[in-house]
């Protein structure tokens, strides 16, 4: 899934290669009419229907539905003549651990003159990545660290001058730009990577904190606290890190804004004043002179799932790759809905993207000549559990990151017909958006920015893990300006999907779906990949991207 948040109403290259791609707007690709014609609604719908069928059992990792899905992908890619992508195999094993946390029903916060008793699930939600059977948070000092951000490119360090080792850090959701609405502060209203809660937990661990609590606020979070409550005493999947242990906080989680107000009052401070100061440059972290205590019980299960990798080997530069991605997994079999249906088919999320991988592979195989660079088709696992399949690939790449030209991701394609617009997530990130803009214009369409950049959707699907290791990544979303019906109908359809189908058993292939719009989007994504596969161009990150320095750190050496 994209982890979309609806609006609140609802390692080395030659130095010369790095500069091969210029900043001028790219010309459109010329794949040939017969190649683009290989992308059809008929074959796409066949792939989609098969992947979203009840027989696939909702495609959940660790189930028989996983094996059925992987068998299907192997069979279909073989039929297209697309070779295995991992040293003679179509599979990359991904070891994982399932951690089931049972948190204490209360948390105690003590100050010099006041004691707060917090109620689990209603006031706070916590879990752990650790696999210890029992975790006790004995009275532990609490520290306020602003947004919990260390961002050198923005000259911002919320941990400056304070050692938080073995302490509980308390922080605000999103990033400073959201609160200031000032483009000179981070990216203003648009969320950056530093605003994501996943980053905040990771940075707290890097700082050695024992625990981390994010203050929930509906508007900057983009969702209500009930979404957070869905994490109360549930199981979560993570990569199996045995043998390469990294430090993990003993406790991660959230507290509500009313709890934060009481917490700061107990520390002799006004929460709104603290919030205002935290959004300004130069704000320093400080101890709250409070201590928190609670406990967690843990059960773990280790298992393995798989990424699927196929490739078309390049003719002249086979070591350079363009990687198309889409996650094959969904939610499996779960609670039955009002109709008695308990199979979460995940047609749009994300059989639609994996069907796109097959369709684009078919188009590349239909080319009269072999691509000069290798084109990879990567269907990743465990996206729904936290982007873990793509994270594992990024940590264990089959194709070196230094030789990976670009990532093109497909997650939740548009089933409502042709649109005039193409929605671009993460506008301003990389030169790949210049490529997709040129292709859209050549097709008589236009690029539209995402409606809610503050939701940070660019950081919520599998391309993000490629971006984190410096690989330019392109991600487009469903357009809403329908050729037949316009924006009003398009937005209505999209809102209906999130209200009635998203992460529900009802996410199936419906009779009223129109696949011609998906195919038009696939043509654009194919053209971008075709151009890159037949050239020596290296798209770059744009100035201001938080991933630019990562790429340059190894491309310039």
Automatic annotation (TrEMBL):
Lipid metabolism: present as a keyword of the record?
no
CDD domains documented for this protein: M28_like_PA, PA_M28_1_2
Q: Does the keyword Protease apply?
A: yes
Query: Signal peptide location in the record?
Result: 1-22
Organism's domain of life?
A: Bacteria
Q: Which InterPro entries match?
A: M28_fam (IPR045175), PA_dom_sf (IPR046450), Peptidase_M28 (IPR007484)
Instruction: Please name the GO terms of the biological process aspect recorded for this protein, alphabetically.
Output: proteolysis
Residues forming the Peptidase M28 domain are: 307-510
Keywords, alphabetical: Aminopeptidase, Carboxypeptidase, Hydrolase, Metal-binding, Protease, Signal, Zinc
Q: Which GO terms describe its molecular function?
A: aminopeptidase activity; carboxypeptidase activity; metal ion binding; metalloexopeptidase activity
Write the protein's name.
Answer: Zn-dependent amino-or carboxypeptidase, M28 family
* Species whose genome carries this gene: Pontibacter lucknowensis
